[in-house]
Amino acid sequence: MADLSLPQAVTLPNYFSQGDLALPAQILDSEDVPSALSAALNSTLHRERWKYSKTAPVLEGLASAMNLPTIVGGEQAGVQISQAPQQNLSFGFDLSQAPEAFARLCYAQEAVFIHIDKALDAPLEIHHADSTVPVLLSLGANAEATLLENFTGNLQPQNTLWISLAEGSHLKHSRNSLEAAHLHWQYLAVDIGKNADYLLNNHAAGAGLRRQDIHIRVSGQGANAELISAAMISGKLALDQQVTLEHLVANGKSKQVVHNIVADGGKCTFNGRIHIHEGANGTDATLANKNLGLGKNATINTKPELEIYTDDVTCAHGATIGQLSDQELFYLTSRGISPESAQALLSEGFLRQCTQGPLAEAALPILINAIKQEQGA
User: Fold this and answer.
1) Count of C-beta atoms within a 10 Å radius of residue 303
2) What is the H or E stretch that residue 360 is in?
3) Which of 15, 186, 282, 308 is close enough to 251 for a disulfide, judged by CB 3.0 to 4.6 Å?
4) What is the DSSP letter of 59?
5) CB 169 within 8 A of CB 141
6) For 275-333, what is each residue's pLDDT tens digit?
């Protein structure tokens, strides 16, 4: 197998050389960047993670033109927005998880830095139109915020977001990725400090290929992470979700609930990995991925993983792949509901369980309409 390579040479942005951000462990100075990225791109772990998606189109687009995202609510007291970090920060950069994301950060040579140092009265909104420069969001100690993200663009958008939560902070994060782009790659990394809380409500539709890479680190004691996700993949479209949730310290909690519907001819991949490090005693982590296929030609790949290096944990994971219940369909049709409407109603109920948060009202009609079109209801 040929080695993967980046489209052009990579250099660190100035804010790294000034020492404002902590570099990945594999990089000590600017001279280490090309070799470290090459090694990470061609590692066994990275190739396995891209097993069901073609890596080349994403790599080719890393150095493409990037727009500034539109930010609404940034004028609130307690919000600082700049193109340089306001203080020394660590975002838990990890080349083993997504070397292409760090390469894109380097290609951009600029980023949007957002720092929140208090409880916000209104949500902070980030609108990504096509490809945008990387965004690095940090919450100070005991800060609280709601973050709303929307993605638009129908060509080959790429979007990357790093989040750092300091001790006692709370972030509710909702995002809608519903436009049928040709190729859409998203990377999200979250580092959760001591007694901090992070909630992600994720709503997605299929695209030519929509790839969602999510890396969440529970790095402070008593921290809590929750991921609730709903997706509808119509025929001939695809969604690839790669989620890694790491527990690095004791007494952390995490919960993942992911519901996906795949229409006849659609393709969905979900790889959810819980990694509990040595010393992370008292961890409580759960993962549930449920998939519903609507037709004989729906393709569903699901792989929940556990990697545990300590004994004192409570951990559970599971995945299901199924079809609509014949008994439930019979019950509805016996009461005068058409077969198409009955299938649409049951599918809608399945997705509603995981369509939550402040963007649910906007996401639900789009997901339901896609279901009805597939069912002919």
Assistant:
1) 15
2) helix 360-375
3) 282
4) H
5) yes
6) 999 999 999 999 999 999 998 899 999 999 999 999 899 999 999 999 888 888 888 88
The model carries a pTM of 0.95
Spatial CB neighbours of 41, under 8 Å, sequence gap ≥ 6: 3, 4, 5, 6, 59, 99, 100
| Structure confidence at residue 377 (pLDDT) | 57
Is residue 359 included in any domain, yes or no?
A: no
Q: How confident is the model at residue 18 (pLDDT cuts 50, 70, 90)?
A: low
* 88-98 pLDDT tens trace: 777 888 898 89
Helix (H) / strand (E) containing 340: helix 339-352
Tokens of 371: 């279901």
CA terminus-to-terminus distance, the chain: 46
Whether the pLDDT of residue 207 is over 90: the answer is yes
Q: What is the pLDDT averaged over residues 193-222?
A: 97
CB within 8 A of 321, min separation 6: which ones?
A: 291, 293, 300, 302
List residues bridging with 232 in a β-sheet.
Answer: 205, 261
pLDDT of residue 1: 61
Q: Tell how strand 158-165 and strand 224-233 pair up.
A: unpaired
Residue 134 phi/psi, 5° resolution? Answer: -60, 145
CA atoms of 312 and 250, how far apart (whole Å) = 10
Higher pLDDT among residues 306 and 153, named by residue? 306
In a domain, 251, yes or no: yes
Structural domain contains residue 123: yes
User: Does residue 274 belong to any structural domain of this protein?
Assistant: yes
Structural domains counted in the chain: 1
Q: What six digits make up the tokens of 131?
A: 């490809």
**Nearest residue to 219 (alpha-carbon basis) of 165, 148, 291, 299:** 165
Q: Where are the beta strands (DSSP E) in the chain?
A: 70-72, 79-82, 112-116, 124-129, 135-139, 144-152, 158-165, 170-177, 184-192, 197-205, 210-218, 224-233, 238-247, 253-263, 267-276, 283-294, 299-308, 313-322
* Dihedral (CA of 187, 46, 184, 259) sign: negative
Cβ atoms of 144 and 168 within 8 Å: the answer is: no
Q: Name the one residue in this structure whose structure tokens are 């409880």.
A: 119
- Domain limits for position 62: 14-324
Number of Cβ atoms within 10 Å of the Cβ of 352: 15
